[in-house]
Amino acid sequence: MKKIFLVFLIVVAIFGSIGYYLWTNDIIYFSGKDVDGIYVEEELRIATDDYHGISYCKLLKKAIDGNQEDIKKIMQLDFSGAGAAGYDHGDVLVKLIDRLGEETIISSLGSQLTKDEKREIEANIVVGLEYGSNPHQGQNLERVFPLFYEYLIKDR
């Protein structure tokens, strides 16, 4: 009886470890995931994997940690035609700007973005402000992020 119980415990430990690894490394999807206080919906995680072949949560974590390349990369992700994932992405971007500040985002994006790239980023943020679950819901970009708004419309 003790051998059966010991084998059972070993099997549970192994499967628990594998499950934990898969869950924490964003390999399996059962629901949304919290990344340092920013909630990422399951649809967004799946769409990023499908459309871009990357882990949205890992990219977001690096952006939250201040990596300028990853901030730029996440700000420029395109979810055109991805349905709800595009709305969720906009909400995450609003929360990321709140977290890091407008100056950090502007600095990370640099001065080399095209007009179309700026318009796409603006559209994502506008959607996030309109439909997201953030403190700025329903407000306009110019009012919420005035420095970032000026950055986006500059040279149009």
How many whole angstroms does the radius of gyration measure? 19 Å
The run of helices and strands is HEEHHHHHHHH
Helical element count?
9
Low-confidence stretches: 17-24
Structure class = mainly alpha
Shape verdict: elongated
Helix percent reads 55-70%
Q: Can you list the strand order of the major beta sheet?
A: 1-2
Rounded mean pLDDT score: 86
**Total strands:** 2
The share of residues in extended strands comes to under 5%
Query: What is the makeup of the main sheet?
Result: 2 strands, antiparallel
N-C termini distance: 76 Å
Which quaternary structure do these chains form?
Answer: single chain
Describe this structure in words.
With 156 residues, this protein is mainly alpha-helical. The protein has nine helices and two strands. The protein has helices spanning 2-24, 42-52, 56-64, 68-75, 84-100, 102-109, 115-131, 141-144, 146-153; strands at residues 33-35, 38-40. A two-stranded antiparallel sheet has the order 1-2. Helix 2 crosses helix 5, helix 4 packs across helix 6 and helix 5 crosses helix 7. It is elongated and about 75 Å long. 28% of the residues are buried.
Concise overview:
With 156 residues, the protein is mostly helical. It has helices at 2-24, 42-52, 56-64, 68-75, 84-100, 102-109, 115-131, 141-144, 146-153; strands at residues 33-35, 38-40. Strands 1-2 form a two-stranded antiparallel ribbon.
